[in-house]
Specification:
The chain has 343 residues and is of the alpha/beta class. 41% of the residues lie in helices and 17% in strands. The chain is built from twelve helices and eleven strands. Strand 9 (236-240), helix 10 and strand 10 (263-268) form a beta-alpha-beta unit. Helix 10 crosses helix 11 (282-290). The longest helix has 19 residues, at 54-72. It is globular.
Length: 343
């Protein structure tokens, strides 16, 4: 059937309690889907009818199917989850089979003490899968794609399950040149502003008293990259964030900290380098050198994976188009299975 051909399909749901959650207050969830996809949705009791072009109707059917499965698992459905399901269920996505399974497959969920986190794009699903399979993963892409958030979530989940003895999170304090002495306060006061996004993610995933306790016991460590020198990090899950701001020497130092029983995730946006002009990003160099090495995987996100405010995705896309018009190389080519890469 031609995707542009008009089509109508009906769906029947058998749990009135969950049906109210699926529809949303005053059918707000259905209206959001209509606005995003350009279909009309009619409801009559527990029967729902979708009208529109064939491809759009099928996308909405798949989306509602995935959202219903979430509700059956006791998981929340809101606007963010709807947008995620729409993204995963897009009829023209080259990885449709993967997309349709990603939200219902337990492997694409991350369970932490406070919440269950779900992949919100095909690339996020691949990223979660990659972190389970590889000892070293690079997550590269623009702001808002969940690179750091998902890495922290995966680390917390594995730590709580007893897979790692320690969580280590680090960022290069480039804005202060790793020379923080001129800032007011003690050492923690000086470095905390650079590490605040990691603290925020941890407090969202674990009870605050647990975070404080494990920080004081040294089971969770959050520190600038410079503090990792001379150490071997064993039985630990390590996240190096904002890695585009590492130099070649710093990146090599970080990579060689990996000890027995440890895994590492390195995240960054290689279009947002704050290093002095002429200094090559250690992240870009490491990816060039190590991509394709056994045990190492590289996941590339693009503006379509942005899961913050919808406006952020449009902003990222506008800047990417400007860079392309200026002759900048295309940096984000998402590695999906149909391109022949196995994750």
């Amino acid at each position: 059937m031609d995707d542009s051909e008009k089509r109508r399909i009906e769906m029947n749901f058998d749990d009135n309690r969950l049906l109210a959650l699926l529809y949303g207050e005053h059918n707000a969830n259905l209206r959001h889907i209509e606005e995003q996809i350009g279909v009309s949705i009619e409801t009559r009791g527990n029967v729902l009818a979708i009208n529109g072009e064939g491809g759009a109707v099928e996308t909405v059917r798949a989306t509602l199917h995935q959202l219903w499965k979430r509700l059956q698992k006791g998981l929340y459905v809101g606007e963010g989850e709807i947008d995620a399901a729409l993204r995963m269920s897009a009829i023209d996505a080259p990885t449709r089979d993967l997309n349709l399974s990603a939200l219902s497959n337990e492997a694409k969920f991350v369970k932490t003490r406070n919440k269950t986190i779900t992949a919100r794009s095909p690339t996020q699903a691949l990223y979660l899968e990659s972190m389970k399979k590889h000892e070293l993963v690079f997550g590269i892409g623009p702001a808002g794609t969940g690179k750091t958030y998902l890495a922290v979530a995966h680390g917390v989940s594995m730590f709580l399950a007893g897979k790692f003895e320690k969580l280590i999170f680090s960022r290069p304090a480039v804005e202060a040149g790793e020379r923080l002495g001129y800032l007011p306060g003690d050492l923690r006061d000086k470095i905390d502003p650079y590490l605040r996004p990691i603290y925020d993610a941890l407090y969202e995933m674990m009870p605050s008293e647990q975070v404080v306790k494990r920080l004081s016991m040294g089971q969770i460590e959050i520190a600038p990259l410079a503090f990792m020198r001379g150490r071997t990090l064993s039985n630990a899950f390590i996240v190096l964030d904002e890695a585009q701001n590492t130099t070649s020497v710093q990146m090599k130092m970080a990579l060689t900290r990996l000890g027995e029983g440890s895994s590492m995730v390195i995240t960054g946006d290689i279009t947002q380098v704050d290093l002095p002009r002429g200094v090559r990003s250690g992240l870009r160099e490491a990816v060039d050198l190590l991509e394709g090495t056994e045990g190492i995987d590289v996941i590339r996100f693009n503006e379509g994976d942005v899961v913050r405010h919808n406006l952020v995705s449009r902003i990222v896309k506008a800047y990417n188009n400007m860079d392309k018009n200026r002759g900048t190389e295309e940096l984000y080519k998402t590695h999906l299975p149909d391109e022949g890469k196995t994750h």
